[in-house]
């Protein structure tokens, strides 16, 4: 009985100490364990750091023969990262920056830079491609080569104009972030079919093919964004399902996060000609409903368009490096 009371008292004392003592700051523990003259590697909690004269390195540095990169808290990077608007790869075990290598099919040059290729396709045009084309490779089903798209119920702006405006702004932002960007159109005077557009992405062997659209509905109260990809059992391009779905999810999630708009869903369907003919990862982003008066007006605001563009760009980047 005395032993039980003794154990109970000890347990009570430990609990009191835990609640009274301040939480341990592991940053302070790390700092205390490194002298002001120390230079070299340290590992804490499974994470690697490099110290120079007692201070953690951050950003990109050459240590010995190799380059390494460290986060703002000093943690060594591994895997793909965009550093100073250049995409670089750091070994998952060593953290060394790779040069003159191909990693996951991505060619890294002598400076350690990989340049992803993105094809942007602003949907529709002022000049509509007439006629019909196969829904997918080998399909006997025909679909219109293109349509005129929808129009803003409140602003009167044609969809093709909004799509192009966002596409051009997105090109500028992506180029600043280290992407190579190819546009299917840079004006509204050209007629392009959905197959024509997909061929541009296929020829470029794009890392991502983004089809930019806005939505419309008979119900003016519906709002929000969605993305569209092929299905798992697509009769045309089933091998691309996982990449198409991942790209669609990444773009939709980042777009909603940046704009604050209502999130609809990723629509999986094999009814989109441009998706069916694409041999590279592709998604359609329906940025919002032009049939909803308030959303239509919002999508014409320059401040909101910046959010739209940033959201799509973030989604592409998240897909490529995560």
Structural description of this entry:
This protein is of the alpha/beta class and about 325 residues long. The protein has 2 domains: about 40-115, Ribbon (left handed beta-beta-3-solenoid); about 115-320, 3-Layer(aba) Sandwich (Aminopeptidase), CATH 3.40.630. It has 8 helices and 17 strands. The protein has helices at about 1-20, 25-30, 160-175, 195-205, 240-260, 275, 295-300, 300-320; strands at about 40-45, 45-50, 55, 60-65, 65-70, 80-85, 85-90, 100-105, 105-110, 115-120, 130-135, 140-145, 180-185, 210-215, 225-230, 265-270, 280-290. Strand 6 (about 80-85) and strand 7 (about 85-90) form a beta hairpin. It is elongated and about 70 Å long. The protein starts with a helix and ends with a helix. The mean pLDDT is about 95.
